[in-house]
Amino acid sequence: MEQEQIIKPIAYIRTDFKEKFGIPRQSGRAPSLCGRIVFLPEYRNPDAIRGLAEFSHIWLLFDFSESHRETWSATVRPPRLGGNARVGVFASRSPFRPNPIGLSSVRLEGIEQTENEGEVLIVSGVDLLDMTPIYDIKPYLPFSDCHPDAVGGYADTVCDMKLSVEFPERLLSLLPKEKQEAVIECLTEDPRPAYQDDANRIYSMNFSGFDIRFRVAENCLTVTEVVEMKK
Amino acid sequence: MEQEQIIKPIAYIRTDFKEKFGIPRQSGRAPSLCGRIVFLPEYRNPDAIRGLAEFSHIWLLFDFSESHRETWSATVRPPRLGGNARVGVFASRSPFRPNPIGLSSVRLEGIEQTENEGEVLIVSGVDLLDMTPIYDIKPYLPFSDCHPDAVGGYADTVCDMKLSVEFPERLLSLLPKEKQEAVIECLTEDPRPAYQDDANRIYSMNFSGFDIRFRVAENCLTVTEVVEMKK
Predict the structure, then answer these.
(1) Which residues of A165-191 are buried (b: 16+ CB within 10 A; e: fewer)?
(2) Per-residue pLDDT tens over the stretch A143-178
(3) Nearest CA-CA distance, residue A225 and chain B, Å
(4) Domain boundaries of chain A, sorted by first residue
(5) Which pLDDT value is given to residue A62?
(6) From residue A211, how far is each of A33, A166, A174 by CA, in Å?
(7) Could you tell me which chain A residue has the CA closest to the CA of B63?
(8) Which residues of chain A have pLDDT under 70?
(9) Domain pair B11-65+100-150 / B158-228, same fold
(10) Torsion, Cα of B103, B2, A122, A179 (10° steps)
(11) Does B18 touch chain A (CB under 8 A)?
(12) CATH number at B11-65+100-150
């Protein structure tokens, strides 16, 4: 029973986030935010995904690669509770858990045939850091995975505070057209750490090679600057 | 990227199935089928499940302990397709996968305070072998895990063939009252291996210490004998 198990990545995901700041806190929060799942050479086999294109959603089991710890803590402070209330680690989706495996359902937008990386899965609604290792991909089965009657504990009762976003057109247009909707969705989710509420503070979100700078006053986020970062 | 990760069980589940034969093929198929999740001593800490009781459903990440293999196969034959069609392993929930980790959502019926095992989670709708190691428990979050619009590929289009079950009262009454509904649900799911359709054959399902013997003709399953097994 105490046996350990060794698991190995089968793929990794490319996303617009090279840093944790700004990543939506669950999958599906930023529906336009896309990712590309690239299989590692050993698993780059069209047979292994035969039939997958028929599914609208897939599960990703992934490595909380930035959250490895030698020890574990019985309680965590979920951002949805404002960062001040503690809940049990097994009552949370916190990355800091005994086995740092994450679970996200994403929409499967398509499968791209590439020259150098074989079949690449295009997914949306991601909540993962760029280069996150993926341990498993499973189809989403509505008849066993979808529970419309489910009650979500503290996650249900917390007010879902979205911000209104003011992104001046001259700044927004600096971003590629296909990234514009996703960046607004991410900002709407309020990337600030819990507890911070300083209207004068300038925050900086690293998104798709751009530094997006903004302020938040009341429930309105205003983008003040967009700087393309050096490659 | 090629890095391995070591994971360790945090709990195990007690169920009525000591053998694979008869286990429902997904979670929720036998809603009355219960299990008891017992934490390993290191994780037996009430703080670690603080707030969990507020959730109606939980995810279990578990070890496909009976399905470890040295190698992996790109395709599998799902029982829902009659066992004759092959789909990609990542387009299936097959236990035979590169990393043998399973994913099941179960209903959280309650949390039992025990003398020797600490808090034990009582769950229903299980699809796991007795003593399956559990790697992680996460709350089911309706806002990110529930996709009523999801399309389930081949799993959707296959006819959902349930059997009608004839379980004579004098045989059924040999089972403890609280197990009777669950055993019927499991039989309704048709425990036979794909492809087998021999009306004369007697099958035997090991359930909760009883040997349940039955035949199947057309779409009707008839229980012929119930034998209590020696402990």
Answers:
(1) bebeeebbeebeeebeebbbbbbbbbb
(2) 899 999 999 877 776 556 789 999 999 999 999 999
(3) 31
(4) 11-65+100-150, 160-228
(5) 97
(6) 17, 16, 11
(7) A5
(8) 1-2, 157-160, 195, 231
(9) no
(10) 120
(11) no
(12) 2.40.30.70
Amino acid identity for residue A101 in this structure: I
Encode pLDDT of B59-68 as tens digits: 999 999 888 8
User: What SS3 class is residue B203?
Assistant: strand
B178 alpha-carbon distance from chain centroid:
18
Test A101 with B135 for CB contact under 8 angstroms: yes
CA A160 – CA A30 distance, rounded (Å): 14
Tell me the per-residue pLDDT of B120-173, one tens digit each, with 9 for 90 and over.
Answer: 999 999 999 999 999 999 999 998 999 999 998 777 765 567 899 999 999 999
Instruction: Classify domain A160-228 at the CATH topology level.
Output: YaeB-like fold (3.30.2310)
CATH fold, domain B158-228, is YaeB-like fold (3.30.2310)
CA distance A227 to A204: 10
- In angstroms, what separates the C-alpha of A171 from chain B's closest C-alpha? 31
Instruction: Yes or no: say if B230 and B203 are a contact pair by the CB < 8 Å rule.
Output: no
Q: What is the pLDDT of residues A111-132, one digit of tens each?
A: 999 999 999 999 999 999 999 9
Rounded CA separation B53/B34 (Å): 16
Amino acid identity at B19: E
Q: What is the rounded CA–CA span in Å between residue A151 and residue B25?
A: 24
Residues 19..38 of B with a Cβ closer than 8 Å to A: which?
Answer: 26-29
Per-position b or e across A15-49, b if 16+ CB within 10 A of its CB? bbbeeeebbbebbbbbbebbbbbbbbeebbbeebb
Total-model pTM: 0.94
Using alpha carbons only, what angle is made at residue A65 by residues A110 and B89, rounded to the nearest 5 degrees?
A: 40
Does B5 contact A52 at a Cβ distance shorter than 8 Å? no
